[in-house]
Amino acid sequence: MAATTERSGTGLEYKVDAAAFDEAAVQAFERNGFLGVRDALTAEETADFLAQVKALEAETAREYFFRENPQYTQHVNVWRTHEGLRRHIFNPRLAAIAARLSRASRLRLWHDQAIIKQPGGRPTTWHQDLPAWPMIEAGTFTVWIALGEATVTSGALQYIPGSHRWGRLAHNTLPRETIERPEGLRWLVPDEQREHLTPVPMELSAGSVTFHHSLMLHGTSPNETGGARYGFIVNYMPDGVRYSGRPHPVIEEGQFATFDRIEGPQFPVLWPAAGSDATGRG
Ligand SMILES: O=C(O)CCC(=O)C(=O)O
User: Sign (positive/negative) of CA torsion 189, 193, 198, 200?
Assistant: First the structure.
Protein backbone atom coordinates (compact mmCIF):
# COMPACT_ATOMS: atom_id res chain seq x y z
CA MET A 1 0.00 0.00 0.00
CA ALA A 2 1.29 3.44 -0.83
CA ALA A 3 1.80 5.90 1.98
CA THR A 4 0.28 9.31 1.41
CA THR A 5 -0.25 12.35 3.59
CA GLU A 6 -3.81 12.97 2.40
CA ARG A 7 -6.41 13.77 5.04
CA SER A 8 -10.07 12.85 4.93
CA GLY A 9 -12.93 14.99 6.20
CA THR A 10 -13.10 12.86 9.35
CA GLY A 11 -9.52 13.62 10.36
CA LEU A 12 -8.29 10.13 9.53
CA GLU A 13 -4.79 9.85 8.16
CA TYR A 14 -4.22 7.69 5.09
CA LYS A 15 -0.66 6.89 6.11
CA VAL A 16 -0.06 3.19 6.47
CA ASP A 17 3.72 2.98 6.50
CA ALA A 18 5.38 4.06 9.74
CA ALA A 19 7.96 6.02 7.76
CA ALA A 20 5.15 8.32 6.55
CA PHE A 21 4.34 9.43 10.09
CA ASP A 22 6.47 12.55 10.15
CA GLU A 23 7.19 14.82 13.11
CA ALA A 24 3.95 16.78 12.47
CA ALA A 25 1.87 13.57 12.69
CA VAL A 26 3.61 12.53 15.91
CA GLN A 27 3.03 15.98 17.38
CA ALA A 28 -0.66 15.82 16.38
CA PHE A 29 -0.94 12.51 18.25
CA GLU A 30 0.77 14.05 21.28
CA ARG A 31 -1.48 17.13 21.16
CA ASN A 32 -4.83 15.39 20.56
CA GLY A 33 -4.12 12.05 22.26
CA PHE A 34 -5.45 10.01 19.33
CA LEU A 35 -4.90 9.39 15.64
CA GLY A 36 -6.93 7.40 13.13
CA VAL A 37 -5.26 5.52 10.27
CA ARG A 38 -7.37 4.56 7.29
CA ASP A 39 -6.85 1.12 5.69
CA ALA A 40 -4.05 0.11 8.02
CA LEU A 41 -4.82 -3.54 7.26
CA THR A 42 -5.29 -5.05 3.82
CA ALA A 43 -8.70 -6.45 2.87
CA GLU A 44 -7.24 -9.98 3.09
CA GLU A 45 -5.82 -9.39 6.58
CA THR A 46 -9.10 -7.91 7.79
CA ALA A 47 -11.20 -10.77 6.40
CA ASP A 48 -8.95 -13.42 8.00
CA PHE A 49 -8.81 -11.51 11.32
CA LEU A 50 -12.63 -11.17 11.43
CA ALA A 51 -13.23 -14.82 10.53
CA GLN A 52 -10.95 -15.89 13.39
CA VAL A 53 -12.67 -13.58 15.88
CA LYS A 54 -16.06 -14.95 14.83
CA ALA A 55 -14.67 -18.47 15.45
CA LEU A 56 -13.76 -17.40 19.01
CA GLU A 57 -17.40 -16.60 19.66
CA ALA A 58 -18.39 -20.17 18.84
CA GLU A 59 -15.89 -21.75 21.28
CA THR A 60 -17.32 -23.45 24.32
CA ALA A 61 -14.16 -24.23 26.36
CA ARG A 62 -12.11 -21.04 26.64
CA GLU A 63 -8.49 -21.06 27.82
CA TYR A 64 -8.30 -17.29 28.10
CA PHE A 65 -10.05 -14.57 30.09
CA PHE A 66 -13.57 -13.88 28.84
CA ARG A 67 -16.02 -11.28 30.10
CA GLU A 68 -19.53 -10.32 29.06
CA ASN A 69 -21.39 -7.20 30.17
CA PRO A 70 -24.20 -5.00 28.81
CA GLN A 71 -21.66 -2.93 26.83
CA TYR A 72 -19.69 -5.65 25.03
CA THR A 73 -18.05 -9.06 25.21
CA GLN A 74 -14.26 -9.28 25.62
CA HIS A 75 -11.97 -12.18 24.69
CA VAL A 76 -8.66 -11.27 26.34
CA ASN A 77 -5.08 -12.33 25.52
CA VAL A 78 -6.01 -14.71 22.74
CA TRP A 79 -2.44 -14.43 21.37
CA ARG A 80 -1.39 -17.03 23.92
CA THR A 81 -3.75 -19.74 22.66
CA HIS A 82 -4.61 -18.82 19.07
CA GLU A 83 -1.68 -19.03 16.69
CA GLY A 84 -3.71 -17.66 13.76
CA LEU A 85 -4.68 -14.52 15.65
CA ARG A 86 -1.16 -13.99 16.98
CA ARG A 87 0.10 -12.95 13.56
CA HIS A 88 -2.46 -10.13 13.42
CA ILE A 89 -1.78 -9.04 17.00
CA PHE A 90 1.98 -9.02 16.35
CA ASN A 91 1.50 -7.21 12.98
CA PRO A 92 4.85 -5.40 12.56
CA ARG A 93 3.30 -2.60 10.48
CA LEU A 94 0.98 -1.64 13.33
CA ALA A 95 3.77 -2.04 15.89
CA ALA A 96 6.01 0.20 13.78
CA ILE A 97 3.37 2.96 13.70
CA ALA A 98 2.85 2.51 17.44
CA ALA A 99 6.59 2.91 18.03
CA ARG A 100 6.70 6.00 15.84
CA LEU A 101 3.71 7.70 17.51
CA SER A 102 4.93 6.93 21.05
CA ARG A 103 8.61 7.64 20.26
CA ALA A 104 9.36 4.37 22.08
CA SER A 105 12.35 2.33 20.94
CA ARG A 106 10.95 -0.91 22.37
CA LEU A 107 7.30 -1.87 22.81
CA ARG A 108 5.78 -4.84 24.59
CA LEU A 109 2.31 -6.29 24.36
CA TRP A 110 0.34 -5.37 27.48
CA HIS A 111 -2.66 -7.41 26.35
CA ASP A 112 -5.02 -7.95 23.46
CA GLN A 113 -8.77 -8.26 23.29
CA ALA A 114 -11.51 -8.95 20.79
CA ILE A 115 -14.26 -6.49 21.72
CA ILE A 116 -17.70 -7.12 20.30
CA LYS A 117 -20.68 -4.86 20.83
CA GLN A 118 -23.75 -6.94 20.15
CA PRO A 119 -26.93 -5.42 18.66
CA GLY A 120 -28.54 -3.48 21.50
CA GLY A 121 -25.17 -3.20 23.32
CA ARG A 122 -25.20 -0.24 25.70
CA PRO A 123 -22.88 2.75 25.29
CA THR A 124 -19.31 2.14 26.44
CA THR A 125 -19.11 4.50 29.41
CA TRP A 126 -16.77 7.50 29.23
CA HIS A 127 -13.48 6.46 30.76
CA GLN A 128 -9.71 6.50 30.57
CA ASP A 129 -7.88 3.18 30.34
CA LEU A 130 -5.01 3.83 32.74
CA PRO A 131 -7.03 4.00 35.99
CA ALA A 132 -8.20 0.41 35.33
CA TRP A 133 -4.65 -0.78 34.61
CA PRO A 134 -1.94 -1.69 37.12
CA MET A 135 0.67 0.78 35.94
CA ILE A 136 2.69 3.56 37.50
CA GLU A 137 3.58 5.23 34.19
CA ALA A 138 1.03 6.47 31.62
CA GLY A 139 2.97 5.37 28.53
CA THR A 140 0.80 2.39 27.59
CA PHE A 141 -1.57 2.95 24.69
CA THR A 142 -4.08 1.30 22.41
CA VAL A 143 -4.77 0.56 18.81
CA TRP A 144 -8.48 -0.16 18.19
CA ILE A 145 -8.88 -2.10 14.95
CA ALA A 146 -12.21 -2.06 13.10
CA LEU A 147 -12.88 -5.58 11.79
CA GLY A 148 -16.17 -4.42 10.29
CA GLU A 149 -17.55 -0.94 9.75
CA ALA A 150 -17.77 1.05 13.00
CA THR A 151 -20.23 3.96 12.84
CA VAL A 152 -21.81 6.19 15.46
CA THR A 153 -24.94 4.05 15.13
CA SER A 154 -23.08 0.78 15.75
CA GLY A 155 -20.87 2.12 18.59
CA ALA A 156 -17.75 3.71 17.08
CA LEU A 157 -15.23 5.10 19.57
CA GLN A 158 -15.54 8.78 20.43
CA TYR A 159 -12.75 10.90 21.93
CA ILE A 160 -12.40 14.17 23.81
CA PRO A 161 -9.33 15.73 22.14
CA GLY A 162 -6.60 16.78 24.56
CA SER A 163 -8.20 15.06 27.57
CA HIS A 164 -5.09 12.88 28.01
CA ARG A 165 -3.46 15.99 29.49
CA TRP A 166 -6.03 16.30 32.32
CA GLY A 167 -4.52 13.64 34.60
CA ARG A 168 -6.19 10.52 36.01
CA LEU A 169 -9.95 11.09 36.34
CA ALA A 170 -12.24 9.42 38.88
CA HIS A 171 -14.80 7.67 36.68
CA ASN A 172 -15.15 4.85 39.22
CA THR A 173 -16.89 7.32 41.53
CA LEU A 174 -19.83 7.86 39.15
CA PRO A 175 -22.59 5.36 38.30
CA ARG A 176 -22.72 3.83 34.83
CA GLU A 177 -25.98 5.61 33.95
CA THR A 178 -24.25 8.96 34.49
CA ILE A 179 -21.06 8.38 32.55
CA GLU A 180 -22.62 6.62 29.60
CA ARG A 181 -24.26 9.94 28.66
CA PRO A 182 -22.37 12.81 27.06
CA GLU A 183 -23.80 15.17 29.76
CA GLY A 184 -22.32 12.90 32.44
CA LEU A 185 -18.88 13.73 31.10
CA ARG A 186 -19.18 17.20 32.65
CA TRP A 187 -18.88 15.68 36.12
CA LEU A 188 -15.74 13.73 35.32
CA VAL A 189 -13.48 16.48 34.02
CA PRO A 190 -11.65 19.40 35.65
CA ASP A 191 -14.02 22.38 36.25
CA GLU A 192 -12.31 24.59 33.68
CA GLN A 193 -12.90 21.98 30.93
CA ARG A 194 -16.67 21.60 31.43
CA GLU A 195 -17.64 24.00 28.66
CA HIS A 196 -15.17 22.53 26.16
CA LEU A 197 -16.39 18.99 25.70
CA THR A 198 -16.98 18.11 22.07
CA PRO A 199 -16.69 14.38 21.42
CA VAL A 200 -15.03 13.41 18.11
CA PRO A 201 -16.51 10.19 16.67
CA MET A 202 -14.03 7.92 14.88
CA GLU A 203 -16.13 6.24 12.23
CA LEU A 204 -13.94 3.54 10.72
CA SER A 205 -14.21 1.28 7.70
CA ALA A 206 -13.14 -2.35 8.14
CA GLY A 207 -9.34 -2.53 8.35
CA SER A 208 -8.97 1.07 9.57
CA VAL A 209 -7.66 1.72 13.08
CA THR A 210 -7.41 4.36 15.74
CA PHE A 211 -4.60 4.82 18.26
CA HIS A 212 -5.19 6.45 21.65
CA HIS A 213 -3.24 7.43 24.75
CA SER A 214 -4.00 5.62 28.04
CA LEU A 215 -5.37 8.84 29.57
CA MET A 216 -7.59 9.71 26.59
CA LEU A 217 -11.25 10.09 27.61
CA HIS A 218 -13.29 7.86 25.34
CA GLY A 219 -16.65 6.14 25.09
CA THR A 220 -19.17 5.04 22.49
CA SER A 221 -22.83 5.36 21.65
CA PRO A 222 -25.00 2.20 21.84
CA ASN A 223 -25.17 -0.32 19.02
CA GLU A 224 -28.51 0.48 17.41
CA THR A 225 -27.91 -1.65 14.34
CA GLY A 226 -29.05 -5.22 13.78
CA GLY A 227 -25.46 -6.55 13.52
CA ALA A 228 -22.55 -6.91 15.94
CA ARG A 229 -19.77 -4.29 15.94
CA TYR A 230 -16.48 -6.17 15.73
CA GLY A 231 -13.36 -4.49 17.10
CA PHE A 232 -9.98 -5.76 18.21
CA ILE A 233 -7.65 -4.01 20.62
CA VAL A 234 -3.89 -4.31 20.94
CA ASN A 235 -2.46 -2.51 23.97
CA TYR A 236 1.21 -1.54 23.58
CA MET A 237 3.45 -0.85 26.56
CA PRO A 238 6.82 0.91 26.35
CA ASP A 239 9.54 -1.25 27.82
CA GLY A 240 10.16 -0.34 31.46
CA VAL A 241 6.60 0.49 32.58
CA ARG A 242 6.22 -0.49 36.26
CA TYR A 243 3.59 -2.40 38.22
CA SER A 244 1.41 -0.31 40.56
CA GLY A 245 0.19 -3.22 42.69
CA ARG A 246 -3.40 -3.11 41.41
CA PRO A 247 -4.88 -6.55 40.57
CA HIS A 248 -5.64 -7.18 36.90
CA PRO A 249 -6.92 -10.29 35.07
CA VAL A 250 -3.76 -10.67 32.96
CA ILE A 251 -1.36 -10.46 35.92
CA GLU A 252 -1.08 -13.50 38.16
CA GLU A 253 -1.09 -13.10 41.91
CA GLY A 254 2.47 -12.61 43.12
CA GLN A 255 3.84 -12.27 39.58
CA PHE A 256 5.24 -8.80 40.26
CA ALA A 257 5.99 -6.72 43.34
CA THR A 258 4.86 -3.10 43.32
CA PHE A 259 7.32 -0.98 41.25
CA ASP A 260 8.64 -4.04 39.38
CA ARG A 261 8.94 -3.63 35.63
CA ILE A 262 6.12 -5.44 33.81
CA GLU A 263 8.11 -7.73 31.57
CA GLY A 264 8.83 -11.36 30.73
CA PRO A 265 7.55 -13.80 28.12
CA GLN A 266 3.89 -13.12 28.96
CA PHE A 267 4.46 -9.54 27.75
CA PRO A 268 6.34 -10.16 24.50
CA VAL A 269 8.31 -7.50 22.65
CA LEU A 270 6.32 -6.41 19.57
CA TRP A 271 8.77 -3.72 18.50
CA PRO A 272 11.39 -4.05 17.16
CA ALA A 273 9.53 -6.91 15.53
CA ALA A 274 11.31 -10.20 14.98
CA GLY A 275 12.68 -10.26 11.44
CA SER A 276 12.02 -6.59 10.66
CA ASP A 277 14.36 -3.69 10.17
CA ALA A 278 13.97 -0.58 12.30
CA THR A 279 11.65 1.11 9.80
CA GLY A 280 8.94 -1.47 10.34
CA ARG A 281 8.68 -2.42 6.69
CA GLY A 282 10.03 -5.92 7.23
O1 LIG B 1 -14.87 -0.99 21.93
C2 LIG B 1 -15.43 -0.40 22.84
O3 LIG B 1 -16.66 -0.28 22.92
C4 LIG B 1 -14.61 0.22 23.93
C5 LIG B 1 -13.17 0.15 23.70
C6 LIG B 1 -12.37 0.81 24.74
O7 LIG B 1 -12.85 1.27 25.73
C8 LIG B 1 -10.94 0.93 24.51
O9 LIG B 1 -10.47 0.79 23.38
O10 LIG B 1 -10.22 1.21 25.48
Answer: negative
* In-domain check, residue 52: yes
pTM to 2 decimal places: 0.92
Q: Give me the chain's average pLDDT, please.
A: 90
Assess whether pLDDT exceeds 70 at residue 277.
Answer: no
Distance CA 30, CA 68 (A): 33
Say if 282 falls within a structural domain: no
If you take atom 10 of ligand 1, which residue's CA is the nearest one?
A: 129
Range of the domain at 191: 8-249+258-266
Please determine, for residue 278, whether its predicted confidence score (pLDDT) is greater than 50.
no
Q: Could you give the CA distance from residue 67 to residue 219 in angstroms, rounded to a whole number?
A: 18
Tell me the C-alpha distance between 97 and 19, whole Å. Answer: 8
Q: Which atom of ligand 1 is nearest to the CA of 72?
A: 3
275 CA from centroid of ligand 1 (Å): 31
Among 144, 149, 209, 216, say which to mutate for ligand 1: greatest number of ligand atoms within 8 Å of CB: 144
CATH code of the domain containing 178: 2.60.120.620
Look at ligand 1, atom 1, and give the residue with the nearest C-alpha: 115
